[in-house]
Amino acid sequence: MSAKVELHLHLEGAAPPDLIRQLAGEKKIDLTGVFAEDGGFATGDFQRFLKVYEAASSVLTTPEDYARLTRAVLERQRDHGVIYGEVFASPQLAAKNDMAAWRDHVDAVREAADGVDGIEWRMIPTCVRHFGPDDAKGAARCAAETAGSFVTGWGMGGDEGAGKPGDFAWSFDCAREAGLGITVHSGEFGGPQSVRDALDDLRPARIGHGVRAIEDLALVDRLAEDGVVLEVCPGSNVYLGVFDRLRAHPIEDLRRRGVRVTVSTDDPPFFRTNMTAEYEALHEAFDWDDGVFHEINRTAARAAFCDEATRAGLLKKLEAAWTT
Ligand SMILES: [Zn+2]
Questions:
Q1: Is the Cβ–Cβ distance between 165 and 124 less than 8 Å?
Q2: Looking at residue 1, what is its pLDDT?
Q3: What's the CA-to-centroid distance between 207 and ligand 1, angstroms?
Q4: What is the 185 CA–ligand 1 centroid distance (Å)?
Q5: Average pLDDT over residues 127-139
Q6: 25 alpha carbon to ligand 1 midpoint, in Å?
Q7: How is the chain split into domains, by residue range?
Q8: Alpha-helical segments (H) within 129-267
Q9: What is the CATH number that goes with domain 4-322?
Q10: Roughly how many angstroms between the first and final C-alpha of the chain, as a whole number?
């Protein structure tokens, strides 16, 4: 299993359905409508996904829940060859922007992550775009307060159709001043203008998705020239209908045009995917070989929100895994 770096994964969105079912049972929470007949999550289009995601996440409340979730997610990721991952979690969900509660969650995730060998994690607190800019400020304060060797980034997910990136500038400035690396979901359901606005107003080093930039080649050139890294999640995009099949996905076109692309799974159980499946599908669709996979993983390691010693170690492991 070759070594992989995954930059775009939502902690609650990576929850195995079995764990969610188990927690719901223990807490006697009714999750009618959350599960499909096959036992997986009953997701459909993006709005439906957000609903099911929020319902499933509602069973995750205590630091112990987050520790169990962390162990389950890390073990699955490791099974698919991931050696380093960054995980999104919003202070607005379980911790409700309460600083003490958020701290407890971060500590629980960090301790659980430390206990799983063979994979390293960093945490990226995010705000939920459709909860609005005011609520995002509380999340940014939580992120800034816990910034350090484990909490290393800041981002924004949620419904890209809600509000404008500029509305969230205060939160992004707050996170940047705390030394956090900046990423933002954009160019998934929104078109090129959404990506331009995110670049102009929030100045991210990375963009979550960003794939709709392909509709505007001047923007593609800008991404390539500025070295903005795209956290591309092909399986997620196809599942949610952003592109009707992988062959129609622009990841290869973007890569050939000089944009720095990486590959992640986003919310793998919701989109019925994993890193092995993503790599196999990319090999099938675009004939990507080990050279290309090495390149995208090097890009990911260089764009990781981690210290330089960790980065050097990752680059070494990738070299050993993909060139022999
Ligand atoms: Zn995402």
A1: no
A2: 62
A3: 10
A4: 7
A5: 96
A6: 27
A7: 4-322
A8: 133-146, 169-177, 192-202, 217-226, 234-239, 251-256
A9: 3.20.20.140
A10: 13
